[in-house]
Write a structure and sequence with these properties.
This protein has helices spanning 2-8, 15-34, 40-51, 54-80, 109-126, and strands at 88-93, 97-104, 132-139, 151-152. The protein has 5 helices and 4 strands. Helix 1 runs antiparallel to helix 2 (15-34).
Amino acid sequence: MAIVEKLDNPVQNTTEQWFDELVATLRTHQMMIETQIADQDTKKVYDTLMGCNALDVAHLSRDLSQRQIIGSILWDYLKTIKDNKPQKLAFDYNDSEVLVWAQIDENDEHLEKQLYLAEALVNAKYHQYGFDMTSMIVENCDGITIPNHYKPFVG
């Protein structure tokens, strides 16, 4: 969503420029809502903000931040293991944790260390935001399938 992108953009030259762009984004969203061309996520944000219910705003904020943080965690993790991918990989998450399920070849200690290193790098970066990663690494000879609540990663 564009308003969140404006707030997250570290390449702002001046405070005045940042405010000008934010106001322009707000006006664009206003026009989109008034002409009924705004997407559901944009409408939901403004409906929640205009409703002035502090709990609803807090819930929306938590959902938006959780999406942002989890997306960043997955991106960093996958970028770190791009040259050392397990046979199977799946993810799940909850309010404070991203869960990794990985299947590797029997006795592939090098890959296992790489996966734990990727987890450690993610935890070092994202623990300050209230999120951690926990890995479950199994070997193909264990015969364990991906748990139902995990989402397989294909890529």
